[in-house]
Design goal:
Elements: E1 57-67, E2 72-76, E3 95-101, H1 103-108, E4 118-123, E5 126-131, H2 134-149, E6 157-165, E7 171-176, H3 185-197, E8 202-205, H4 224-239, E9 243-248, H5 258-273, E10 278-282, H6 293-308, E11 318-320, H7 336-343, E12 349-352, H8 363-373, E13 377-381, E14 410-415, H9 421-436, H10 443-454, H11 459-467, H12 494-517, H13 521-553, H14 556-565, H15 570-578, H16 586-606, E15 614-617, E16 639-640, E17 650-661, E18 664-668, E19 681-687, E20 694-695, E21 700-701, E22 705-708, E23 713-722, E24 732-738, E25 750-751, H17 755-758, E26 770-772, E27 775-779, E28 786-793, E29 800-805, E30 811-817, E31 821-825, E32 832-836, E33 839-846
């Protein structure tokens, strides 16, 4: 699935687009859900017996234990499993373990008549495992392995129990289908072991950056090294009873002729010779002739007859259609999905991502697609994939999957993980559980068990990081930090304060704790850049609380010094933006606390309401720190909505109080030339109370730049409202300025290296600043007697001089500034002030 150009992160990877992406416009895909639902479920007491996936039927006897301290005596009826017991000693002196499979044995023991089903019994006579087929018996062994590894069996004494178990879905597994850095061979091998352990049975190999998977090289054989690796992957899958599915992506340049059909069959034969027995064809993310659904089904049906049904042991084909999401699929009988339903061989399975590219699995979306393709679809779930938000690493619970579904609704669930394979294991633990036993799936309980399974020696530290690293901030959003209560500086209790401080301290210590305790070094390596920034977030969050107390108890100079010492530098922000966590509560708490304290402080010093505005609108993520990107006086950064616009969409600002509005300046889009993310039909409006809105402009069409400057009005809210149009792209705003400060509007003159940026020192906005590196000068307004400077001195501590000059240029006074907060009284006869030196100036307040 293409996520990069479908979502906001596309700009970061433009130089790495592979062949199938070139020329393909996916802007209409930008409609990811912004609703954030809480994680369902509850933590259960498993009595020390931990099995994943959750068995359908498990009965533990009240009394009785089987002592296996001397090992197991294996009676392998079909002689297929002697290599599958690395977790226990096999010896003739051990307890009897009988393993068998087959329809007759299964029927005798009440095992369900489906692939993967098994029954297990542990009692005083030993252990028996009966599978419907070989996979079922193997899954029974994996259950035994988890019983042996459970706390209840710590003394090598297994509880007497019976299990009758089976998978709900035929297809349960993973597709390596993300954009970005493919997994290493070692990571793939490690993941295959995970699939086997937790009863997932499909691994679809389709890395977008595998050049022999896609155009133009899909026709060519793999080089020797790559072929050898694939053969090893197939062998590892066979050991784990996982079907290795090799996928090909030929649609961007395929020619609907015999030559390319022969090329396709030849490539399949090459892969067959490497041991591949399952195949998929992807027609996703393409344009041109390759999207023709009738040609696609003709090829698939022909291949099904000529190859799948002829070659020994080949599994049914899998196809990803071009219309793999409801968002842009043609719903009519003439649409490609209906053509699939009417013409595609019923044995071929069809992928589906749901209502949008990243979406929840619901009965409604399955009914919609199934009624058209005339078979239960195979659900391609774009979670925990992050190729559209590569600054995020998803570690939250697996949820958003309807638990009332059955195999009549979908034939399987395949997860598309992150490029971080080890860090994807936590989510895959949940995918395995859900797809095996949907009705009993418990997201929170599964997540807690997964943390303990993957990092038993460092569970609490891993949990601290994971619970605060769940949110994408845009697109397919997930609940995050749900146990943490944040607050505003005006409304909290001491208990709230202490609890949040304790959490930030725990966050601060988490990276070191994980480094010292976590045994999975590959996981640590993937998490490392996020852990570094996570620790910093803990520190600045804790310090924000300290700054809040300082504001309440200390003098102005002490507060301002504490405040500026806890501000993020440009380098800090760049590092955090590259590896984010805590985006839903923690970083917003830091941002809001620091902003509100500065606001209150400036109001206290000036007696006026500061010019601090907040983003508001119809898009949910305007409540996050993303909205600051349109208010940061930097036209190279931008707020992006993270979901599609509609005819009720609007973006605006809250001015904090009713003000006289005389000018509004807005820059739409990520650029003002050819970007598609903007309101192409819009109107600028204002309101005093947020209920009755009045127009400032006529309707505006195809305007990136919105500029209004007419008769002033009284307003607290100003907004840009979308008017009816066909556009459904995201919306982006680079700049939203109300009453921007102008040189000509100041009652005094300013001279500086960059006069426009120097205005930030006089804009009554504590979140803006001017980085002075030479001399900033300003004339004194009439009756001005003093000034207060709010600054952050340069780290080099080079001296900063403040000089007061007479009208003839004579220096009347010189003050050396070596603190962030300075109050200066003007000497008699002074008409001009100069500030010389390297210093960041937040505000110069003239009284």
């Amino acid at each position: 699935m293409k996520l990069l150009t479908a979502l906001a992160a596309a700009m970061f990877l433009c130089s790495n687009l592979s062949g199938q992406e070139q020329g393909f416009d996916l802007t209409t895909q930008r409609s990811e859900n912004q609703d954030i639902y809480s994680v369902p479920g509850n933590v259960l007491n498993h009595g020390g017996l931990l099995i994943n996936p959750t068995p359908h039927t498990l009965r533990v006897a009240e009394k009785g234990q089987l002592d296996i301290s001397k090992g197991l005596h294996l009676k392998d009826i079909k002689k297929r499993f002697s290599e599958d017991f690395s977790f226990i000693t096999l010896t003739k002196k051990g307890v009897k373990l009988t393993i068998d499979y087959g329809s007759k044995a299964a029927a005798k023991h009440g095992v369900k008549n489906i692939s993967g089903a098994y029954a297990m019994n542990i009692d005083d006579k030993g252990i028996s495992i009966i599978g419907y087929d070989e996979k079922g018996a193997f899954y029974g062994i994996q259950t035994l392995r988890q019983i042996v590894e459970s706390p209840i069996s710590a003394e090598k004494k297994l509880p007497y129990l019976t299990i009758n178990d089976y998978p709900d879905l035929s297809y349960r597994g993973v597709v390596e289908g993300f954009y970005g850095t493919p997994w290493s061979h070692q990571v793939r091998m490690s993941l295959i072991d995970l699939y086997g352990k937790f009863k997932m049975n499909y691994y679809l190999y389709g890395p977008k950056d595998d050049h022999y998977h896609s155009c133009p090289n899909w026709r060519l054989p793999y080089p020797e090294k790559e072929a050898k690796n694939i053969k090893e992957l197939v062998e590892a899958c066979n050991r784990n009873r996982v079907d290795f599915v090799w996928a090909i992506h030929p649609g961007q340049d395929i020619k609907w002729n015999n030559e390319d059909y022969t090329n396709l069959v030849n490539k399949f034969n090459m892969m067959y010779d490497l041991g591949v027995r399952s195949f998929a064809i992807f027609f996703d993310d393409i344009d041109g002739e390759g999207t023709n659904p009738r040609k696609q089904t003709e090829l698939l049906n022909r291949l099904n007859e000529d190859f799948v049904k002829v070659k020994e042991g080949v599994a049914p084909l899998i196809v990803c259609p071009t219309d793999y999401s409801k968002l842009w699929a043609n719903p009519t009988p003439q649409g490609s999905l209906s053509i699939y339903g009417n013409t595609l061989d019923p044995s071929i399975n069809v992928f589906w991502t749901g209502d949008v590219v990243c979406s929840d699995l619901t009965k409604e979306t399955m009914d919609w697609v199934n009624s058209r393709i005339k078979r239960p679809a195979l659900y391609w779930w774009n979670f925990p994939v992050t190729d559209y938000v590569r600054h995020i690493i998803m570690q939250g619970p697996v949820y958003g999957l309807e638990t009332s579904l059955t195999s009549n609704d979908l034939c399987g669930l395949i997860s598309n993980p992150m490029e971080h394979g080890e860090a994807s294991k936590l989510a895959l633990y949940g995918v395995a559980d859900y797809s095996w036993n949907m009705a009993d799936y418990n997201p929170i309980d599964n997540w807690e068990r997964g943390l303990a399974e993957l990092t038993p020696e460092a569970k609490e530290a891993y949990r601290t990081f994971a619970i605060h690293s769940c949110d994408t901030e845009t697109g397919y959003r997930r609940a995050e930090s749900w146990e943490t209560k944040t607050f505003s500086i005006h409304n909290y209790t001491e208990a709230d304060f202490n609890a949040l401080r304790k959490e930030f301290e725990k966050i601060e210590q988490t990276p070191a704790e994980l480094q010292s305790k976590c045994a999975n070094k590959a996981l640590l390596n993937e998490l490392q850049p996020w852990l570094v920034e996570f620790g910093k977030l803990g520190t600045r969050g804790k310090r924000a609380l300290e700054v809040l107390k300082t504001y309440q108890t200390a003098d102005d100079a002490t507060f301002w010094a504490a405040y500026v010492n806890n501000l993020m530098s440009e380098e800090d922000r760049k590092a955090f933006n590259a590896h984010k966590s805590g985006t839903m509560k923690l970083q917003p708490f830091y941002e809001n606390t620091m902003n509100d304290l500065a606001y209150e402080f400036l109001k206290k010093l000036t007696g006026e309401m500061p010019s601090v505005y907040k983003g508001i609108g119809s898009f949910n993520n305007l409540g996050t720190t993303l909205s600051k990107l349109m208010l940061d006086n930097d036209s190279t950064t931008f707020y992006t909505s993270g979901t599609s616009q509609n005819n009720q969409s609007w973006i605006g600002v809250d001015l904090g109080c009713v003000r006289t509005v005389s000018e509004v300046s807005i820059l739409q889009g990520r650029n003002s030339i050819n970007d598609v993310d903007y309101f192409d039909h819009t109107v600028l409006e204002y309101s005093e109370e947020g209920k009755v809105w009045k127009a400032l402009t006529d309707s505006l069409k195809n305007q990136y730049v919105i500029a209004w400057k007419e008769t002033p009005v009284k307003a607290r809210y100003v907004r840009l409202k979308k008017l009816p149009s066909a556009k459904t792209n995201w919306a982006a705003i680079r700049s939203f300025e109300v009453n921007p400060i102008r040189l000509e509007s100041l009652p005094f003159q300013v001279e500086a290296k960059d006069r426009e940026k120097a205005l930030f020192a006089f804009d009554k906005h504590p979140d803006t600043s001017y980085a002075n590196s030479g001399t900033l000068s300003f004339t004194l307004p009439e009756k001005a007697t003093e000034c207060t400077l709010l600054m952050k001195p340069d780290a080099s501590k080079s001296p900063v001089q403040l000089r007061q000059l007479a009208a003839d240029g004579k220096v009347l006074s010189t003050t050396t500034i070596d603190t962030p907060f300075v109050k200066v009284n003007f000497v008699k006869g002074a008409t001009k002030v100069e500030v010389e030196g390297k210093v960041e100036i937040f505000e110069i307040i003239l009284n």
